[in-house]
Amino acid sequence: MTAVRALVRDELALPVDPRVTAMAAAIAARHGDAARAVLFYGSCLRTTELDGQMLDFYLIVSEYRAAYPARWMRVANRLLPPNVFPFAHHGLASKYAVLSEADLQALCGPEAATVSVWARFAQPSRLVWRSDDAAAERVVGSVARAGPTAMALALPMVAPAERGDPLAVWRAAFSQTYRAELRAERDDRSGSIVDADPERYRRFGAAILPGLVGAGNEARWRRLRRNGKSLTVLRLMKASATFAGGIDYLAWKINRHAGTKIAIRPWQRRHPLLGALVLLPRLLRGGAVR
């Protein structure tokens, strides 16, 4: 674990576009003393393209009661993490998800009931703002759990002859996690994550695989898939209260990844929760999300 932690610490410290750092600081400022760290991740990190894109951040807070003045926001974040908010800064658009330090630690580990957090942080991310060194070290420790969790759960799903190949295990991990959420991306998307930087995944795999004990099986993955898809729908419902324009973002993301041409009608913008719930069955039937 020491070697994995060192790799994570070095990767989190890699530089990013100064506009990303500025946006992260502005996000943290919205939540005052509750803000502990901001992580940047996702497709904009992989491609380095920012203009015209939606940047992805996680804001890590000390605790939810310190992060929000409204009680219902605190309760929503605790019961169904994370809360997600849109944010714009100096011509760039983003969304950020809010997790407490304790939830980040738990959701990056094998005890998590869904894949959504550890699957994100098994991939590259950057620590682009932190309140102090202690906050940074706590983030490093949490993120360092994500890769071992992904590989341990994927290992039993790999043919025995390939279990020593870190890339085979990583591909299996991302293939399984993509099946465990409602996704708009095309079928080959999970493999392209590894192919975009195979050396990175070899390096992390070499640190994780020795002595790794498999922790997954088909029954476990069935539970993760059931939990993940159900929670995706619940989070979509919650986002209608926290994410202005959320239904337009949903359509944009699906059109971008699935090649569809979904158009949102005015009534769906007026009633985003109802509009999203009406839209979802059609998307599932048509295969735009899986």
Describe this structure in words.
The chain has 290 residues and is an alpha+beta fold. The chain has three domains: 144 residues, Beta Polymerase, domain 2 (2-Layer Sandwich); 76 residues, no CATH class; 46 residues, no CATH class. Helices cover 57% and strands 13% of the residues. It is built from 16 helices and five strands. Strands 3-4-2-1-5 form a five-stranded mixed beta sheet, with helices on both faces. Strand 3 and strand 4 form a beta hairpin. The protein is globular and about 55 Å long. The two termini are 34 Å apart. The model has no long low-confidence stretch (mean pLDDT 87). This is Phosphatidate cytidylyltransferase.
Briefly characterize the structure.
The chain is an alpha+beta fold.
What is the topology?
Elements: H1 2-12, H2 18-30, E1 35-41, H3 43-47, E2 54-61, H4 64-67, H5 71-79, E3 83-89, E4 92-100, H6 101-107, H7 116-121, E5 125-130, H8 133-143, H9 146-154, H10 166-179, H11 189-196, H12 198-208, H13 218-242, H14 246-258, H15 266-270, H16 272-286
Parallel strand pairs: 2-4
Antiparallel strand pairs: 1-2, 1-5, 3-4
Helix pairs in contact: 1-8, 6-8, 9-10, 10-11, 10-12, 13-16
Protein name: Phosphatidate cytidylyltransferase
* Beginning-to-end CA distance, first to last residue: 34 Å
| Helix/strand order, N-terminal first | HHEHEHHEEHHEHHHHHHHHH
**Helix count from the secondary structure assignment:** 16
CATH architecture of the largest domain: 2-Layer Sandwich
Q: What number of structural domains do the residues give?
A: 3
| Fraction in beta strands | 5-15%
Mean pLDDT: 87
Question: What is the CATH topology assignment of the largest domain?
Answer: Beta Polymerase, domain 2
> Order of strands in the sheet with the most strands?
3-4-2-1-5
For the secondary structure, the number of strands is 5
Report the top-level CATH class of the largest domain: Alpha Beta
State the shape: globular
Protein name: Phosphatidate cytidylyltransferase
Organism: Sphingomonas prati
